[in-house]
Amino acid sequence: xxxxxxxxxxxxxxxxxxxxxxxxxxxxxxxxxxxxxxxxxxxxxxxxxxxxxxxxxxxxxxxxxxxxxxxxxxxxxxxxxxxxxxxxxxxxxxxxxxxxxxxxxxxxxxxxxxxxxxxxxxxxxxxxxxxxxxxxxxxxxxxxxxxxxxxxxxxxxxxxxxxxxxxxxxxxxxxxxxxxxxxxxxxxxxxxxxxxxxxxxxxxxxxxxxxxxxxxxxxxxxxxxxxxxxxxxxxxxxxxxxxxxxxxxxxxxxxxxxxxxxxxxxxxxxxxxxxxxxxxxxxxxxxxxxxxxxxxxxxxxxxxxxxxxxxxxxxxxxxxxxxxxxxxxxxxxxxxxxxxxxxxxxxxxxxxxxxxxxxxxxxxxxxxxxxxxxxxxxxxxxxxxxxxxxxxxxxxxxxxxxxxxxxxxxxxxxxxxxxxxxxxxxxxxxxxxxxxxxxxxxxxxxxxxxxxxxxxxxxxxxxxxxxxxxxxxxxxxxxxxxxxxxxxxxxxxxxxxxxxxxxxxxxxxxxxxxxxxxxxxxxxxxxxxxxxxxxxxxxx
Length: 540
Fold this sequence. Notes:
CATH class of the largest domain: Alpha Beta
Number of helices: 16
Number of domains: 4
Distance between the termini: 139 Å
Strand content: 15-25%
Strand order of the largest sheet: 3-2-1-6-5-4
Helix content: 40-55%
CATH superfamily of the largest domain: Histidine kinase-like ATPase, C-terminal domain
Structural class: alpha+beta
């Protein structure tokens, strides 16, 4: 075909295209441009002349939700993956609305099987009268469905918008417009960076992240215009054939109140940590102060006690003066007991108080401790009873600490048991532990005060017991010493009926050899001076 014949053929084709009811289009693949003409074009842009546009410009004409499918169909046909190119899609009309059209065509390939041209027609589906009624009904149903979906879409209280893979906003609901503070025409077709929604530009948008990962992506952002924090979830919609991202649905949740509460909480945590550090520092200073004062006070008390002992030994005070020296000695013992307890509690808190565990007969040790205080208890006209359901139990314990525990409990019972009452020390064996109990028939502990007795400086503050009040540190020390043996201590008490303390210690042994004999007469629980100190509250 020569050039003249080619021009003649193009002229005839132009006349046919202008006179046809359908619109005609052609894709010049090497030039990457599209032409379309005919009376049909007038319906869409008000002009009947032939128009040439770049292929990319189709994005402005084809509905965003249909463009991916349209483009994919063109590419698959040119690769000869599908035999026919025929697509129904929505195209932007001159009126500003989208109309459903049927686009179809055929292609031309060169001798190397490379595509050169793709041309065909596009037909407005709603103009079909008979055979096309199905398409018209389909369009009607689609419009009704679309209207329903739009109503639902706008009724969702959380902001939702749809984006293409280039991060352009295709559609958004009323809640999103309210959140961003823009009108629909201000953001449709634009990127987030174009309208500067966020306080700080994203290094990598959530849309790009979701497109790359093809997975649900989440990010929290601060919106400058509305001064709100939002949680954004991006859901990529994948093509079922190519598995490529076609568009993204992004859901926005206002978390401003939650974020404010979180920031307030973080600030409170920082304040609490600061207060805790300050409290720890203050407590450390107080502990060191008590320890230093306790050590300083022990020196003059020891001097006073030594002097009193010298007076009794060499100056043979009269009966009248001995009364006062005894009172002085008793109060010195009380002070020494308090100071010893404070020092021991300080050591326990600091981690310097260690147990010296040795294998011995716990039954015999508790019995000896009980017998050592028998005379002190009888002097107060109180009956002391020792009763054990087992004869012997070898186990690991610190004899000196057990002595401190028992003397504290016995002293406590004697203080609050009136003359004529009873104090019973009992021992009972279990499968893996041993129970030691100290039960009295004293005034008991009021229910409201029972939660305080193991607290340091906790006291049973009542008229019935005020005359016997101590520092309130003894039972706290007892609890700490029991727990150092991996044991537990509990009690039962009723007012005017008495109190029972129960210690449960695990039965275990240690491998090292015993360095001293528990029955040696020089042991601490037989030393009169120690008894005078530990029983100073009932010593007379």
